[in-house]
């Protein structure tokens, strides 16, 4: 039997050959890039890649090696594409993105819509971002807010997207896909939940507690201690508070913020019942124009992927190869396609950066239905 040293020497010789061949292959791919630039051809040719994968698998013997050689060539061709996108970028033929860069947002006389009623956390987020003199109105649902900007009755909408303890506001993710509206800003607001009821309500008189599902989730530890209370979801925490005022019923209470409790004349029965003491929610500012601030530093996109092994891995490699820092990934089921998912990715960068354009070009060719949700 050969010694380990001898076998390693043999591997070194083989690897030298692979390395030389890799460089030679990439050199040819540069030529392919030049050809494609000249002739306006797409970088990604899935048919050619599938033929190649089948051909190389044919040439090796065991199932293990068939799988291995496919993986190796998937990687090689993915590298080849990235080199080609880079050449396209250097030649300035990446194409223009349909977003217009602005020095600042047009906030003059802007009308802003938020979901809920007076006292909603969405309203507090709006006041934080736009200032207290902002012209505004409120609507019953997130969908109504999206429609208001799409049809132009409002210029901006403020929507919650994610909570530090309860996670994503999934409905808002889905609406971002459905509507031609784009994120232009974000703001983070600390959220403190109170348990509030009309005068005379006590912890022992309560049978039902009302709030937005996020409000119920963010106070689940406290609510679990009162397991007999029925938890009822309503569209907004401030709507729950308003309902308490309207019903005047001591068998029910609302999870809402202090301002809403005050506004609707409720007593606070328990303060700061949120599970996490630093509970906070990130809100996005959405508009109907494809614009971004020139100093924007975060990009949100979403895409579907072919239902094949390795496809997410290959798509995410565009971030790695362009040195882009991915800060978040979420997935949501694709409507009408059971067990298929749409991915939402946030990463650092500006749409004017070459690295960003390069990554988006690659993602656009290789993913299904890529949508840029905004740069802010
Ligand atoms: C090199 C090409 O570009 C891409 C990369 C391929 C490869 O590395 O073999 C194959 C198909 C294309 O997706 C080509 O079109 O031939």
UniProtKB/TrEMBL annotation:
The record marks 281 as: Essential for prephenate dehydratase activity. It comes from the Bacteria. It is an enzyme of class 4 (lyase). The keyword DNA repair does not apply. Its EC number is 4.2.1.51. SUPFAM superfamilies: ACT-like (SSF55021), Chorismate mutase II (SSF48600), Periplasmic binding protein-like II (SSF53850). One of its GO terms (biological process) is chorismate metabolic process. Pathway: Metabolic intermediate biosynthesis; prephenate biosynthesis; prephenate from chorismate: step 1/1; Amino-acid biosynthesis; L-phenylalanine biosynthesis; phenylpyruvate from prephenate: step 1/1. Residues 1-88 form the Chorismate mutase domain. Keywords: Amino-acid biosynthesis, Aromatic amino acid biosynthesis, Cytoplasm, Isomerase, Lyase, Multifunctional enzyme, Phenylalanine biosynthesis. GO terms for cellular component: cytoplasm. Coiled coil: none annotated. InterPro entries: ACT-like_dom_sf (IPR045865), ACT_dom (IPR002912), Chor_mutase/pphenate_deHydtase (IPR008242), Chorismate_II_sf (IPR036263), CM_dom_sf (IPR036979), CM_II_prokaryot (IPR002701), Preph_deHydtase (IPR001086), Preph_deHydtase_CS (IPR018528). CDD domains: ACT_CM-PDT, PBP2_Ct-PDT_like. The keyword Lyase applies. It is found in: Cytoplasm. Residues 111-288 form the Prephenate dehydratase domain. One of its GO terms (molecular function) is chorismate mutase activity. It holds the Pfam family CM_2. Catalyzes the Claisen rearrangement of chorismate to prephenate and the decarboxylation/dehydration of prephenate to phenylpyruvate. This is Bifunctional chorismate mutase/prephenate dehydratase. It comes from Coprococcus comes.
């Amino acid at each position: 039997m050969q010694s380990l040293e001898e076998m390693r020497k043999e591997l070194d010789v083989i690897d030298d050959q692979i390395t030389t061949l890799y460089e030679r292959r990439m050199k040819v791919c540069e030529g392919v890039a030049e050809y494609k630039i000249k002739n306006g051809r797409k970088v990604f040719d899935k048919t050619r890649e599938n033929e190649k994968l089948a051909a190389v698998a044919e040439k090796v013997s065991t199932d293990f090696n068939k799988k291995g050689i496919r993986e190796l060539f998937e990687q090689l061709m993915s590298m080849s594409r990235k080199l080609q996108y880079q050449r396209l970028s250097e030649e300035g033929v990446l194409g223009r993105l349909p977003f217009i860069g602005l020095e600042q947002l047009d906030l003059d006389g802007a009308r802003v819509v938020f979901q809920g009623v007076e006292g909603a956390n969405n309203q507090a987020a709006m006041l934080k971002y736009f200032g207290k003199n902002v012209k505004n109105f409120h609507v019953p649902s997130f969908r109504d807010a999206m429609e208001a900007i799409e049809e132009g009755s409002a210029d901006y909408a403020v929507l919650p997207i994610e909570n530090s303890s309860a996670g994503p506001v999934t409905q808002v993710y889905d609406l971002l896909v459905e509507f031609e509206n784009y994120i232009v800003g974000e703001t983070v607001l600390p959220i403190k939940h109170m348990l509030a009821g009309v005068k005379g309500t006590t912890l022992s008189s309560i049978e039902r507690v009302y709030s937005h599902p996020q409000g119920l989730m963010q106070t689940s530890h406290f609510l679990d201690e009162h397991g007999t209370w029925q938890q009822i979801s309503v569209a907004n925490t401030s709507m729950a508070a308003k309902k308490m005022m309207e019903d005047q019923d001591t068998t029910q209470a609302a999870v809402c913020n202090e301002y809403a409790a005050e506004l609707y004349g409720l007593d606070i029965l328990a303060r700061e019942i949120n599970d996490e003491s630093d509970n906070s929610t990130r809100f996005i500012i959405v508009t109907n124009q494809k614009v971004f601030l020139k100093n924007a530093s975060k990009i949100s996109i979403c895409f579907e992927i072919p239902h094949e092994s390795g496809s997410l891995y290959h798509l995410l490699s565009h971030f790695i190869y362009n040195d882009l820092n991915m800060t978040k990934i979420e997935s949501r089921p694709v409507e009408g396609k059971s067990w298929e998912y749409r991915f939402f990715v946030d990463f650092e960068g500006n749409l004017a950066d070459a690295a960003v354009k390069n990554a988006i070009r690659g993602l656009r060719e290789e993913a299904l239905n890529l949508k840029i949700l905004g740069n802010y």
